[in-house]
Amino acid sequence: MTETASGPARSSRAKSAKASKGLRVERIHTTPGVHPYDEVAWESRDVVMTNWRDGSVNFEQRGVEFPDFWSVNAVNIVTSKYFRGAVGTPQREVSLKQLIDRIVKTYRQAGEDHKYFASPADAEIFEHELAYALLHQIFSFNSPVWFNVGTKQPQQVSACFILSVDDSMESILDWYKEEGMIFKGGSGAGLNLSRIRSSKELLSSGGNASGPVSFMRGADASAGTIKSGGATRRAAKMVVLDVDHPDIEDFIETKVKEEEKIRVLRDAGYDMDLGGDDITSVQYQNANNSVRVNDEFMKAVDQGGQFGLRGRMSGEVIEEVDAKALFRKIAEAAWACADPGIQYDDTINTWHTCPESGRITASNPCSEYMHLDNTSCNLASLNLMKFLKDDGKGNQSFEAERFQKVVELVITAMDISICFADFPTQKIGENTRAFRQLGIGYANLGALLMATGHAYDSEGGRALAGAITSLMTGTAYRRSAELASVVGPYDGYARNADAHKRVMKQHSDANDKAVRMDDLDTPVWAAASEAWGEVLRLGEKNGFRNSQASVLAPTGTIGLAMSCDTTGVEPDLALVKFKKLVGGGSMQIVNGTVPQALRRLGYLEEQIEAIVAHIADNGNVIDAPGLKPEHYEVFDCAMGERAISPMGHVRMMAAIQPWISGAISKTVNMPESATVEEVEEIYFEAWKLGVKALAIYRDNCKVGQPLSAKTKEKEKAEVTEKAEETIRTAVEKVVEYRPVRKRLPKGRPGITTSFTVGGAEGYMTANSYPDDGLGEVFLKMSKQGSTLAGMMDAFSIAVSVGLQYGVPLETYVSKFTNMRFEPAGMTDDPDVRMAQSIVDYIFRRLALDFLPFETRSALGIHSAEERQRHLETGSYEPSEDEVDVEGLAQSAPRAQELKAVSAPKAEETVKPAPQQAHTSAELVEMQLGIQADAPLCFSCGTKMQRAGSCYICEGCGSTSGCS
Questions:
Q1: Would you tell me how many other CB atoms lie within 10 Å of the CB of residue 104?
Q2: Which family is it part of (predicted)?
Q3: Catalytic residue ranges
Q4: Which of 314, 338, 882, 909 has a CA between 20 and 30 Å from the CA of residue 244?
């Protein structure tokens, strides 16, 4: 804990800034005379990260030094992402000590230089406490701090940026440039385009204006060209447009139209998966879009009235639209392609601390940072599970006092960073130094709630989450007021003092009105009430050092670096997790939070053991021996048999929003079966509940995803049955599989196909089991004895043996389609008009010949006749009179011929062979027989999972757009 130099007691905080000479720093975790590094056991680790698709090594650094309690995944991510210096050179960091020292010594030096501390001894305690908290994964700064602080490169500490653009070509071109510089540094930016006049307004020359949607094309192309930080992932950006802009309908429909274009191009044989080469030809794919709605519009929606669209230059209504119809279009677009999200303008600005300096018009790409234009925010997140005190017998408490001390330490460090930070543009640097926006937040909320026996979607769960959030933000603002007495308030405070104090009162009032539920949240609420009382008292006297204190970020990479089970405000993904082992290998374990929750709920150890065993076998708690049905909800997760409802996510956001300075990065996932009406309900209820911003994602709504949950209910049941047979494991037992080869009989039916790919000719013979599908493939290319012919023979044998050992054909199809090498190009096959390679053609042809419609449709493979049917009717599905008794489409090429050779039955071919999980998301897929609707990681190939508004790779820590 830190406090003013005038005395250790809380009452001393009231002394004047003139009497205060700096902060006195109290020890939280460290011991006098002992460095935090000397209190832990260190060990040497080898970090070798491979791409599971082809086994290639993505990253390798051996002999790195970490504490023995750090997980393999955390070591891999920190070593590969955050260690600086070229691998293999003396300049490369080789120990976590070097990394932490590089950061904390920079913070200490800046704190001393800018007179934050009362004495060198206080500065040393600050350094040691900060090092301890990072070492023990109690909190983490955002990634740019780990990347940049203490290096020779610009010391950018912010991950979140908001830009601005005016109605002039000069400003628009500046926008392109500034955004590009931010992308180059590995961060993301957002802005509002509503100042740009619409296409329905005139230029001074008399011609029609282009409108903001047209300028979005140029910015989108720029973002697609500049890979963030030199990496392969896309840039992260947010584009906002006000609901009263005359071009709002065009803005809403931009991505819907492009999504249909993607479908057409995919069906023509182009690679339209996320990250595919051909996706770059489609526009508006590099940004999240959000509509900024105000209370006037939402009331018109509620009452069924008209709403005026206003000219940007005159401010007058130039067109009136039906509010409900416009709201419906927003929901339809979001249902169809997940964009646009929605931001509630009046709610956001009601909580704005600096309205005299300008309105809040936009957000960063993930929607958690919302403040003035041309500003930035640096983030840090606390690991909530580190503050749960549990004696192992069901007696639990949240350590509110220690939590406050850590918040004070972290918020002090975050403010110090602004003193030495570099910024991508001069305007952003000036405004950030003038308003000093900070974004403290947390991770592991979902794990904490489950461990304490609270359902995520419950009054008790929301009460505990709200109490912790209130305590965090109240403590942060109290520290900000104390800092103001030492180093002065932020430059913009004097102008905005009344508004800032009004918002503090709003936070405090919301805290007083909150409902207390049980023995866990009540003490936390009491501590929060005391903190807010101090905020009002000290703020009145000293002002505040920071215009903003807290946000809830996705905590993607840093959450994994802290070994968190859940990111940001998200619930747990699943009850069974994937865990990497030291020395290689992996295993599946039941969440450690499950036994904690069961003890909290009063179960005996024998009962807990039986329930955990049931979860290990089944992946869920349904029918677990001895578990009361009323306790099932405690173990509800984001995915699985008992998935949390979409409104459950919205209610959690509403429960914590009153104590977040900014907003919450979260996407509300919806099942594929969700309706447009349900999207409307979520967007409307979120406004009524006081949420600041929201986005939805309906499963399988986007084409540009390599994996999707498209399996039908009948197939789900069969796959689940197969998965349950193959995923039998104890809590700490590695899974072993022993496949058996099934050879083909001497006489076997077959089909021989001649083909041409890019001018290269070849022949393929595909032989089948008489009653059980494809069993072997032979490929003939070039002359006998040539290298190509030999490789094709070897490849054929490898595939054939795999098929006979039970590897499903769809697995080969998913792995080898879209593989790109020469020869490639046009084919002579009307069903596969373009092929990326010979292998791409072969497995597309095999899919068409041997896979049932549903399976290959999920993989995006359709015949020429099916594509024509889609153009005419909007559906690839064959009609009832085109399907035979086994479910095989008669209209598919050579369907009758395949029936003669006993084509595989749909219900058998969809069963997957035993497979290996690489992330917890894949483990859920194996257990449920579905595929999580998420992209593959560009760096290591494993499936990613959602973190806020983007995706995070559990394997290597890469993100799909958040820093």
A1: 24
A2: Belongs to the ribonucleoside diphosphate reductase class-2 family.
A3: 364, 366, 368
A4: 338
